[in-house]
């Protein structure tokens, strides 16, 4: 079967905060055909039979949050090796409809925004996020120290005395709900009193419930079905400006919600991951079956986060130029207001062993920590995926802050996210029927 012999549409999603966000197969509505009318069915237009499911994906997407609870804060402050214990999951269902849809350039492109909202799912969680406590790095304090690193020693010492007076430590204990959705932080509150534009509340997911990930313009596939779903612009940009090379700044591929039909094992799937501030590629690794449906598994290969020493193409992600971390981690300060955040796969899976060995309590493995997407190759439908991303922060000594005097430079894990979905039984049955007719 050639690429021109048939085209089928269906959709699913993959990202963000490293790729995917929902699955919306509509296979009962779409038939395989060699006619021009059939090609029209795979365009993102109001007349196509797939449009409503693209607009409001029906299949459930679950987001699991796992935290690294710090078990030896005093020893870390004394210069000993950090030890953590994973707790979780705390699971939320994500809703991500597309809104403000507008067709552009004679229907060849479509504009949409994608607001996201989250609802806690207690039966899929280990406990109550409003009760359960987690001890972690005091992120607001570390961000402030990082910001002050270029200021005078006198100012750093003054701020250090102020924080000690308030009893603020390098490690904090708060509820899962607080660290995710926000709490009033004493340091930020003091800064807010002087600079009202600074939010006095902190939370890793603060202001992300009910907010949009960005403004997208997609190709509808009206001209070429191979461009189907590809991003033309994000927030009005065709190229980012954060990184130090044109290649690194490119916005490539789709948003992960759909792929063109007739995918082959030799191609790379490109996805723009807004939460990672970059595009990534996925490569074929294996044939799999999901609910009796044949699929190709695509995963981010090791070269995606490989150090520039081994993969020169990644040199553009070193900002400023030449300031590079090792394999398996990506510093995203450039798109996080300078905060020393680093992303990786969970437990530093595929990362340089030095990051894994710096922390007791980590055990990276492929089954639990690899990101993957299973795509039905004839239709291009994502029928199962797991997007797994870890958030870390750079912990280091800062002159003027005595409590950091003995700590070791560490890429310190805060939490990781597993965003997952699988085709439901009804849609799987319809897909099996459709494929039997092809």
TrEMBL record:
Name a single GO biological process: protein targeting to lysosome
Q: Secretion signal: which residues?
A: 1-28
Task: State a single Gene Ontology molecular function.
Answer: scavenger receptor activity
* Coiled-coil ranges from the UniProt annotation: none
**An example Gene Ontology cellular component term from the record?**
membrane
Note whether Glycoprotein occurs among the keywords. Answer: yes
Q: Which UniProt keywords apply?
A: Glycoprotein, Membrane, Signal, Transmembrane, Transmembrane helix
Coarse class of the protein's main subcellular location = membrane
Name of this chain's protein: Lysosome membrane protein 2-like
Q: Which Pfam families match?
A: CD36 (PF01130)
Q: Which family does it belong to?
A: Belongs to the CD36 family.
User: Where found, per UniProt?
Assistant: Membrane
Query: Would you say which domain of life the source belongs to?
Result: Eukaryota
């Amino acid at each position: 079967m050639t690429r021109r012999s048939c085209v089928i549409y269906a959709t699913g999603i993959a990202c963000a905060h490293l790729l995917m966000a929902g699955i919306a197969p509509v296979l009962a509505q779409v038939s395989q055909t060699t006619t021009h009318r059939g090609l029209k069915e795979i365009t993102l237009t109001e007349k196509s039979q797939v449009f409503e499911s693209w607009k409001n994906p029906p299949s459930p997407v679950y987001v699991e949050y796992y935290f690294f609870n710090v078990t030896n804060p005093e020893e870390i402050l004394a210069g000993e090796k950090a030890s953590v214990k994973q707790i979780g999951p705390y699971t939320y269902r994500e809703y991500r409809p597309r809104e403000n849809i507008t067709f552009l350039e004679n229907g060849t492109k479509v504009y949409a925004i994608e607001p996201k909202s989250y609802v806690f799912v207690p039966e899929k969680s280990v406990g109550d996020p409003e009760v359960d406590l987690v001890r972690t790095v005091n992120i607001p304090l570390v961000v402030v120290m990082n910001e002050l690193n270029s200021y005078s020693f006198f100012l750093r010492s003054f701020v250090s005395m102020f924080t000690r007076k308030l009893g603020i430590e390098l490690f904090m204990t708060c509820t899962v709900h607080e660290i995710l959705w926000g709490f009033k932080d004493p340091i930020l509150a003091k800064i807010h009193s002087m600079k009202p534009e600074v939010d006095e509340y902190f939370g890793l997911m603060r202001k992300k419930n009910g907010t949009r990930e960005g403004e997208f313009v997609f190709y509808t596939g009206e001209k070429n079905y191979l461009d189907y779903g590809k991003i033309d612009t994000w927030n009005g940009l065709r190229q980012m400006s954060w990184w130090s090379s044109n290649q690194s700044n490119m916005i490539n591929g789709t948003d992960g919600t759909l792929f063109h039909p007739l995918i082959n094992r030799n191609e790379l799937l490109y996805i723009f991951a807004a939460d990672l501030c970059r595009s990534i590629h996925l490569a074929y690794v294996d044939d799999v079956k999901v609910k009796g449906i044949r699929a190709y598994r695509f995963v981010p290969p090791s070269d995606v986060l490989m150090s520039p020493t081994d993969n020169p193409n990644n040199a553009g992600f070193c900002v400023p130029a030449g300031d590079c971390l090792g394999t398996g981690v990506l510093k995203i300060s450039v798109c996080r207001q300078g905060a020393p955040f680093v992303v990786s796969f969970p437990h530093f899976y595929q990362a340089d062993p030095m990051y894994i060995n710096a922390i007791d309590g980590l055990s990276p493995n492929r089954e639990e920590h690899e990101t993957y997407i299973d795509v039905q190759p004839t239709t291009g439908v994502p029928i199962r995926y797991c997007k797994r991303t870890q958030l870390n922060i750079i912990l280091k000594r800062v002159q003027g802050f005595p409590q950091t005097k003995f700590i070791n430079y560490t890429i310190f894990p805060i939490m990781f996210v597993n965003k997952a979905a699988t085709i439901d039984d009804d849609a799987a049955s319809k897909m099996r029927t459709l494929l039997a007719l092809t």
